[in-house]
């Protein structure tokens, strides 16, 4: 049985979303076993006992020692990334953190010196291939939809809930905030906004706005999102290279929870969102968001249609089994090359 070591943090959403479901599936099939350790706990002796080393979002210079040990021990290495760290806008907190030369150099070194780079979007793959290495691969992620067997209450007839789940996205929400303010004013108590994770400061304190902190446990979070039974889910995304390299996880989240989503016109959704079929596309402007949210509010049949088609699409295209088979092919391809 092949032994795989993930160098990274077990508590991150990236691990729980990208690696845990397919690796757990492959382990259940008897193909491999796997462990995860932060780079500070990894030693050369530990690395020597594994066949493949996956570096998950490794960007700290100290993690390079693990890569050096892996190569000296003759192990196959994969760099798993879901953010293009060199493209993070400098105006953001993350951009300021990752703009340090040491982080940039570490990121670039990993890209150029592992046996394979695994990314989460087709655009990201082309960027890495053009600028860093041809040894890069993309295939769709997956989602565990077992939570859909849980019971949830019926939708309320006298109130419509519009929600957002995710991390802080101030720039992406810039045109959405005034649109939501117009919606709240126009529909008064009929519309309620719910935020899991990030909530714009401008909307906090409004009587029809509720906010909960993000749950770091992705499985528990998805159960909660499913039971929330939102009528509409929001997925704003800024324009620019950094955002184009993101994954389509928001579609997977909403679609699996049977929440009809409104999405920014972005390349990350081009393979999964089809306008008024599996989602609703809007331009990243105040008027675009207002018009899109309003049409979805007044058209329950459209919401139902999108909910049903998106649920079918996510079940068909983002199965854990298929994702696991893609990982297995990646691993086998590395092992078969001397």
Structure characterization notes:
- This is Glycosyl transferase.
- It comes from Paenibacillus solani.
- The structure is a single chain.
- With 338 residues, this protein is an alpha/beta fold.
- The protein has two domains: 159 residues, 3-Layer(aba) Sandwich (Rossmann fold); 172 residues, Glycogen Phosphorylase B (Rossmann fold, 3-Layer(aba) Sandwich), CATH 3.40.50.
- It is 43% helix and 17% strand.
- The protein contains 14 helices and twelve strands.
- Strands 2-1-3-4-5-6 form a six-stranded parallel sheet, with helices on both faces. It has a six-stranded parallel sheet with strand order 9-8-7-10-11-12, sandwiched between helices.
- The longest helix is centred in the C-terminal third of the chain and has 18 residues.
- It starts with a strand and ends with a helix.
Q: What is shown here, in short?
A:
Helices cover 43% and strands 17% of the residues.
Helix and strand topology:
Layout: E1 2-7, H1 13-28, E2 32-37, H2 44-48, E3 52-56, H3 64-72, E4 76-80, H4 93-98, H5 101-113, E5 116-119, H6 122-131, E6 136-138, E7 160-166, H7 170-173, H8 176-187, E8 191-197, E9 209-212, H9 218-228, E10 232-235, H10 241-244, H11 249-256, E11 261-264, E12 280-282, H12 286-298, H13 300-317, H14 320-336
